Amino acid sequence: MKETPLSERLRREASYAVHSRLLANPASRRRHRGERAELSPVQRRAAEDLSKNGIALVGLRELFGGDALWTELSDSMQAFVRKAESKATVDGKRRKKWDYLIRRKPPKLAPEDPWLRFGISDEVLGIVNAYRGLWTKLVEIEQWYTVPYPDADKRIASQRWHRDPRDRNMVKVFTYFSDVDEDSGPFEYIRGTPPGGPHGDFWPWKPFNEKYPPEKKLLRETPTSEHMTVTAPAGTIIFCDTTGFHRGGFARQKPRVMSYHQYVSPASLRAGLQADRRFSVLWQNGGGGLSQAARFALT
Ligand SMILES: O=C(O)CCC(=O)C(=O)O
Q1: What is the pLDDT of residues 52-85, one digit of tens each?
Q2: The pTM is what?
Q3: How confident is the model at residue 98 (pLDDT cuts 50, 70, 90)?
């Protein structure tokens, strides 16, 4: 990826500070406070876990109170997995992220698309926005098939520990669609490492900080008791502040099937830390019937 020139980085950092503190985020904080969603016990527990640890695990069926959406999402995922399997012919070489990660990322989504409905549902947005204390923007929706590489000995790209750079305390929501064990590249996290957390000061988050810390130092500076490996069954949703240290996708024996939704604050988009929303919605009626928070997430 081409590096952003220093002058542009400084400009965006300054703009981000102004939008976070004065221009973009305060208004979205006020809207969140003014129209605060009533959270279910499951949502409250998830928002509390996020605040305490930077990560929360929730069962999809438990969150949505049934099987209907899970069945729709699984059917759509199966169609993608069939295509991915035919592409995943491993030649033993693994040069770039794109060699181990096959992604589906439709640029245009119909309003009835189940991935979109999941992403802007009261159930998911309620947790993300409660954690952030503001109304967020949904900017990426993808489905991932992680190709196993039995001979891989070194981690590359997001298989290495890193903090995401696009927004302080940004949230990613990953949902497992396969049972994930140690052999299928589980997501890993170090609890308490987001900025503001008890272990947030090591290699601190900054918009354009070097992404990957020296691993030995990171392991020395963070308590082993806070290292978490998310081996979990299909149907597990991971809500995660990815400005805390995380990594994943180092699959050795079995593929991992997972969906991915990314949420940032308005300041991130306005300052250009997150370049743009990566999809558009093919509205038929301008989004009538959506909640205010859902409409905000998509505009
Ligand atoms: O594939 C994974 O489990 C890690 C993904 C990741 O690091 C990211 O999206 O920032």
Answers
A1: 999 999 999 999 999 999 999 999 999 999 999 8
A2: 0.95
A3: low
Question: 36: Cβ–Cβ under 8 A, 6 or more apart, which residues?
Answer: none
According to DSSP, the residues that pair with 281 across neighbouring strands are: 109
Burial letters for 176-206: b for 16+ Cβ neighbours within 10 Å, e otherwise? bbbebeebbbbbbbbbbbbbebebbeebebe
> Which atom of ligand 1 approaches the CA of 185 most closely?
3
Q: Which of 192, 166, 177 is nearest to 49 (CA)?
A: 192
Q: Is 164 near ligand 1, meaning CB less than 6 Å away?
A: yes
Residue nearest to atom 8 of ligand 1 (CA): 158
Ligand 1 pocket check for 193: Cβ under 6 Å: no
CA 281 – ligand 1 centroid, Å = 25
The DSSP annotation for 188-251 comes to EEETT-STTSTTTTSS---TT--SS--HHHHHHHS-GGGEEEE-B-TTEEEEEETTS-EE---B
If you average pLDDT over residues 8-13, what whole number do you get?
A: 91
Residue 217, number of CB atoms within 10 A of its CB: 11
Q: What H or E segment, with its residue span, contains residue 150? A: none
